[in-house]
Each structure stands twice: as C-alpha cells, then as structure tokens.
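Quarterly update, task 2.4: NAP-bound model.
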Amino acid sequence: MKAIRVHEFGGPEVLKLEDVPSPQVREGQVLVRIRAIGVNPADTYIRAGRYAVRPTLPYTPGMDAGGTVDSVGSGVTRVKVGDRVYVAGSLTGVYAELALCSQDQVWRLPDNISFEEGAAVHVPYATAYRALFQKAFARPGEAVLVHGASGGVGVAAVQLARAAGLLVIGTAGTETGAKLVIEQGAHHCFNHHSADYLDQITAVTGGRGVNVTLEMLANVNLAKDLGLMAPGGRIVVIGSRGTIEIDPRMAMSRDATVIGMALLNAPDADRFAIHSALVAGLESGILRPVVGRRLQLSEAARAHEAVLEPGAHGKIVLTV
Ligand code: NAP
C-alpha cells in the first residue's frame, strides 16, 4: 500500500510517499481503508520532533481519518467489514491507504457525513467538546469566547456551544473566516487583528464579561483573555506557541481559572463519553464538519505548510 513515511524529524520535505507492506489485523484490531485524512497542527509538531511524544522512526503520521472497515480481528464486536467509520487515533498512522486501529479507535460514521467530513471529526471536535464540557463545565446561558474560531477546533467549538445554548462569540483573522464563523452558529465574530475587538466582545456580553474562553493562541492572548472574564470565568488553554507575561491579579480579582488541556491526556472513560456525544451530534445534523481545502495524499508536505498559515477556513483534508 501507499503511505507517507517519516525517516527523520524535520521540515515538511521529510514526508515521503512510499510503498510499504499492508498491516494485518490481530485480536481486537480493525483495519480501516482510508478515504480521507484530517491534517492537524499537531501532525507538524510531531514531524518536526517538537511534540511531547516522539514516535519511533520511521513512522506514518496522522490521527484523524474517514474510511471503511476492511477487516477485523477476533473479538471485535463494535464494527464489521464494510462499515463506514471515522478514526480517532490509530496504531500505524493514517496518512496511508490502510490503517490499523484498536477497536476503541473507530467510531461509526453516520450516512449523512462524508468521508472527508469524517476525517475532520476526531481531534477538532473531541478537543472542543472536552474543553467546553469536561474542563470548563460550560452551561446554557453562559457567554463563550472561541478565540480563534475559524479553524478546525474553533468551528467545532462554535457548533457545539451554539447547540448547547451558550452565547457564542468567535474571532477570526480574515473576513472570509469571520463569515464562516457566523455561518457555523456564532452570534458575533470579531477580527483578532483589529484594535478595538476586546471592547466589542465586552460590549456584546452587556458589560458582564465572558464566562468561558477557549484559547487557540495563548502566548498571544492569555493576558487579554484575563481582562475579558466575568467573575468565576474559566479560560481553557488549547493552543500556545510560546511564552507570555500575565498579571496574576487579573485572575484573583475575578476568581478566574486558567485550565490547560491536552486531548491525549483524556482518560478512556472521558473519550468514550466524548465520541458517544459526537456521533449523536453528527447523526442529528447539529455537528457539520467544515472541509475548507482538499489535497492529495502525495501533497502531504504542502498540507503541513498550509495548516500553519494564517487565514484558516475549517479543515484541511488529504484524499486517498
Ligand atoms: P487551525 O485550524 O490552524 O486554526 C487556528 C486558529 O487560530 C484559526 O482560527 C486562526 O484564525 C486562529 N488564530 C490565528 N491567530 C490568532 C490570534 N492572534 N488570536 C486568536 N486566534 C488566532 O488549528 P486548530 O486545529 O483549530 O488548532 C488550534 C490550536 O490548538 C493549534 O495550536 C493546535 O496545535 C492546538 N490544539 C491543541 C489541542 C490540545 O489537545 N490541547 C488539540 C487540538 C489543537 P485565522 O487564521 O483566521 O487568523
């Protein structure tokens, strides 16, 4: 089968399309024929050797995909050959024609969701769900700021928060990004590069402040976020690409909490709850992944450049 292989950590050019032997299922495992692959910023950090977890070289990248079940090992009860699934992590990497998964890494893809949309589910939606409901304990009627709402996690958070009855405020860096955020259900969207957007956010909360912030770029925004919070507010740090100086007094005066999260730390029971909720949301149409750009598997290097460029518009997906 064809697969992207990484033999050394480095820039996008280390992603090589190669012929490798197809994996074979063992007990409790599922082999998935991959139709589309979700590209996440974390895929680039791992490829560069700058992530908390460094895979053993050589490896095949990728955690998110949509496809069909090709074969199952003994003891697999959750899926059968031919089922449409989305993949939430794998044993062999998903930038490939086939990926081996444990049975708890595959989830039923409802018929109304395409393979490309399915490839956009795992990391973005699971992260947004965990941040909103398992970390910040967001409640209907509260105001949530999705600081960086035009990308994968942001669009997912907007859809989830709107469906849960929150006042949803998003930000984007371009007009097309802002349009997308409003289309996906945000009540308001502001440009995070404009001079007065923080005042605009406070204004739309009626001066009360934001109860929950999901932060995609904490090294730029954490100090600003603290100033926007309502009493008892919770900031979930989802993304950060450097350091920042904050005034801790801003947290004290508001009884505000800053919560860090990494999806890979979620225990199995929490993952099970997350994906059970996501499948239900996909099935009912409340959750609709947005694929903004499609590239071929052979263009993985270009996708790794694009996912770090400004001007996000939903997900970048590789087709197989
Ligand atoms: P993405 O699709 O590339 O989207 C990035 C988002 O950040 C876009 O909405 C972008 O907006 C926005 N952004 C850029 N500059 C910003 C600024 N100054 N202020 C606020 N937002 C800004 O990435 P993603 O998949 O949504 O992931 C977002 C971040 O979370 C990444 O750093 C990723 O590594 C991290 N992440 C962490 C976890 C975890 O477990 N903790 C899980 C998933 C992702 P414009 O492009 O419109 O400017």
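Highlight for this quarter: DSSP finds ten helices and 15 strands in the chain.
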